[in-house]
User: What shape does this take?
Amino acid sequence: MSDDILERYRRAEGPLPAVQQAWPLYGAGFENLGQGGRPVEMPLRPCGPDEILVRHDAVGLCFSDLKVIRAGQSHPRIYDDMRAKPVILGHELAVTVVAVGENRRPRFHVGERYVVQADVYYQGRNLAVGYALPGGLEQYSVMGREVLDGDEGCYLLPVDPALGYAEAALAEPWACVEAAYSMEYRTRLKPGGVAWFVGAPGASDFLLTRGLDEHAHPRAIVLSDVPLCLAAGLRGQAGTLGVLVVEADGLTPERYAEAAERAGVAAFDDILLLGPHAADSIAAASALVAGGGALILASAEPYPEPAPVDVGRLHYDRILLGGTVGPDLAEGYRPFARELAPGGTLWLLGASGPMGHMHLQRALQRPQRPARIIASGRRAARLALVAERYGALARRMGVELICLSEEALGASGVAARVRELTGGRGVDYCVVLAPDAGVAARAWDLVAPGGVLNLFAGLNRGTKVPLDLNPLRDGRQRRIVGSSGSRIEDLAGVLEKACSRVLAPEQATVAVTGLEGARQALQGVAEGHYPGKVVVYPHARGLPLTTLSEMAARMPAVAARLGEGGVWTREAEEELLRECLGMRDA
Assistant: This one.
């Protein structure tokens, strides 16, 4: 009989309820999650003719959910008044279709399973699931044009029926990890865009060999105090190509916005700062870079002081920050090593959290692996779990795994140890998994020549960190980049790896709960209790928040189906659902 319950659930058979449970977030703080510390009961809205109704089968909790709880209305992905339109968190989401509007029936069918690509773009606007669109911390949701007819097509990816629900849901964070190493940036001025060239006293003369030619070019350029030879060359190229030239000399940093006004734009696709600009000039110019734009620092002379860098915009707006000593400005756009350097040193800063575990597992299982991985974090106990969980794998793969805790060494001690381990050269690749501006600044100083600092953990736009930007332009040629979310192809790749068992996303699970325990689980994530993922099963009624280490005492039949080392498996999930769906139907 229990098998019948699970099979009926899989096929999405039976009548739909009139009401469902959900965790709406009405503003900043846990006190605004749900009502009275409990989920809210609300009517189940039927789908319209151009919509589908999906059941939420599994939801992975993410640190990004906590950012919304903490920031509330000020979060960069929240657009509407949360009091009038509360947010439903949960963007790591596996669903099953339970009803299909008449205009969607040729494409969708009841019982089909999908994983949601959370980074939805509709009519040029980012409407991420779990932010602007309802997420997984409710039992059902209606999906319409934004998800089904988005700018990149449909944001639902089919799931092989053999995959578990947690496997499918956790493919989303894995896709974000994959996307962090496949970021693409422009290698020239944006075709059809607007570029601004800004000189500074003492600027050398430059030239531009790529980006303003017959192959591709901007529609307009703005010139401000540009060295004479370069200015003449740019005007000549622009005249040949029919590119508009706007003159805007004599602007101080306080008046930089006037350059955009004269060009008739709100922001520039490319800004090239020529010469040793002061920190206030760099800060004022960077505020005028459009999303997906580039800020190129070109100077033969060193910058006299650190400049404030908006690390939130690097992460969320995918800004290219490049540099060159010249003379060719096109060198500021040179490609960089997006992937881990085989045989190099990788530093995972904040490695003891769930995403740190994923980055570590990925690095160890790559065919071209680093020779050394430094995993650092605040708490010694949590890093001991990292060593325990991945030490044997690292040894099998021939990788030196070193765990460093701030609790034992202090932040400065960790930095000194990293410098010592690399012979003073620095690390080849550093992934910052802690949303801490000070951490990002310390890490930048420990990146080797030609290395990359990847700001994986997002800080709010407007978070400015003073950085020495000379390594961008001189012989060290470091890069600082950031990534947010993933693309459809990243998620599809992870699902393919999961189906072939090259990757086991569900093994990141360390605790499970029904919907009722989601608030408690989020608080535990906020307090750093879990070294891996908590998975919520919204239809598993009566399932308290349970770590896998507690499973033997609470649900022995489920514990008996855990994998080697006590990891979560498809079989354990099936047994859990048999028990909990039986409770629901009782």
The chain has a mean pLDDT of 93.
